[in-house]
Specification:
With about 300 residues, the protein is α/β, with parallel strands linked by helices. Helix content is about 35%, strand content about 15%. The strands form two sheets. The chain has a seven-stranded parallel β-sheet with strand order 1-2-5-6-7-8-9. A two-stranded antiparallel sheet has the order 3-4. Strand 1, helix 2 and strand 2 form a beta-alpha-beta unit. Helix 1 packs across helix 2, helix 3 crosses helix 4 and helix 8 packs antiparallel against helix 10. It is globular, with a radius of gyration of 19 Å. The chain starts with 14 loop residues before the first helix and ends in an 11-residue tail after the last helix.
Length: about 300
C-alpha cells in the first residue's frame, strides 16, 4: 500500500484499492493492521489513517520505527532516543490516531543502539503514546537484551513454507518467554497465493523487488510453482485457496499469534480470510514436507533460505 518508487517496492498501487481492501477486511472480521513508516516514505501510514478514520470497527494498528529518510529520500537506520520519539509523533500524525497499539523496532540496526531505542519505546509506552512494544527481525540473544529493559510483547519474523528457519530456535525461545509471534511474508511475497504465474513475474514493474529474489527465479521457481499446485489440491479438499493453505501452514504452530497478509484490492480478501479458521491435518503438513524433500534442487540452498 506504500506504492512504488521506494526500496523493496511492489510496484504502483492505487490508493482507492488499498482503502477498499482495508474496508473489506474489516467487514470480514479482521481486527488489526500492520504497517511501517518506510513503506512509501510515510504513504502507507497515511493510507491506513484515511481508511480507518471514522470506522466504528477501528482495528488495532501496528507500526514500526528505526528506518528513517531525509528530504532526498536517502534511507538510514536510527535507534537514538530523539529519532524514535520523533518517528512516533510522525506516525501518530499520519495514522490520525492518539496511540499506536503495537510499536515495533523494525530492524536491530544499528546493533549497538538497540538498548537506547528500546528504552525510548518503553518511555513512549509509559507516556501512553503506544500501548505495547515489540520487535521485528530480532534474534533470541537480542531479545534477551531487550527483556532486561522492558518486556518484549511480540516478535515479527519472516516465516513461510519456503522459509521455515525460525522453527529451530526462534519459535521455542518465544514460547519459553511468552513472546507473541506475528509472522510476515507467509505467502512468500505472493508466490504461494495461487495467483502468481510465470507471465505475471515476467511483466512485473522494474521497481517490484520480487522478480530479483531467488524464489522467483529458476531453478527454484519451477519447484515453487509446482508446490503451489500441490497446495491447490490440498486446498480444494476444504474449499480453500492455495494462499489459505500457505497461511494455515504458518498458523499451525501454537507459538504463532497471527500472519501478516498484504492485500492490494478488496477482491484479494476472499482468497485469504478463510485461513483464520482453517487448519491443515498432520498428513497434509507431511505431504508438503515430502514434496519439498523430493523436489529441492541439490545445487541450491535448502528451502529454509529460499
Amino acid at each position: 500500500m506504500g506504492g512504488g518508487g521506494m526500496p523493496m517496492a511492489w510496484g504502483p498501487q492505487d490508493d482507492n484499492d488499498s482503502i477498499g481492501a482495508i474496508h473489506a477486511a474489516l467487514d470480514r472480521g479482521i481486527n488489526w493492521i500492520d504497517t511501517a513508516p518506510i513503506y512509501g516514505f510515510g504513504h502507507s501510514e497515511e493510507v491506513v489513517g484515511r481508511a480507518i478514520k471514522g470506522r466504528a470497527n477501528r482495528p488495532y494498528v501496528f507500526t514500526k520505527f528505526s528506518i528513517v529518510w531525509d528530504d532526498k529520500r536517502e534511507v538510514t537506520r536510527n535507534l537514538k532516543r530523539e529519532s524514535v520519539v520523533r518517528e512516533c509523533e510522525e506516525s501518530l500524525r499520519r495514522l490520525q490516531i492518539d496511540a499506536i497499539d503495537l510499536y515495533q523496532v523494525h530492524w536491530p540496526d544499528p546493533a549497538g543502539d538497540i538498548e537506547e531505542g528500546w528504552a525510548a519505546a518503553a518511555e513512549l509506552q509509559k507516556a501512553g503514546k503506544v500501548r505495547w512494544i515489540g520487535v521485528s527481525n530480532f534474534k533470541p540473544e537480542q531479545m534477551t537484551r531487550m527483556e532486561a529493559i522492558a518486556p518484549v510483547t511480540s516478535l515479527q519474523p519472516p516465516y513461510s513454507i519456503l522459509s521455515p528457519d525460525i522453527e529451530a530456535e526462534i519459535l521455542p525461545f518465544c514460547a519459553a518467554h511468552n513472546i507473541g509471534v506475528i509472522v510476515y511474508s507467509p505467502m512468500k511475497s505472493g508466490l504461494l497465493s495461487g495467483a502468481m504465474t510465470r507471465e505475471r513475474i515476467a511483466n512485473m514493474p522494474e521497481d517490484d523487488f520480487r522478480q530479483r529474489t531467488i524464489s522467483f527465479k529458476e531453478p527454484l521457481l519451477t519447484r515453487n510453482l509446482n508446490l503451489v499446485e500441490l497446495m491447490r489440491v490440498i486446498g480444494a479438499r476444504h474449499g480453500r485457496t492455495p494462499g489459505e493453505v500457505a497461511l494455515a501452514w504458518t498458523l499451525r504452530r501454537p507459538e504463532v499469534t497471527g500472519a501478516i497478509v498484504g492485500m492490494r484490492s478488496p477482491q484479494q480478501v476472499d482468497g485469504v480470510v478463510g485461513a483464520a479458521d482453517f487448519r491443515l491435518s498432520s498428513g497434509e503438513v507431511e505431504e508438503i514436507a515430502a514434496f519439498l524433500r523430493d523436489n529441492t534442487p541439490q545445487q541450491n540452498t535448502p528451502p529454509a533460505a529460499a
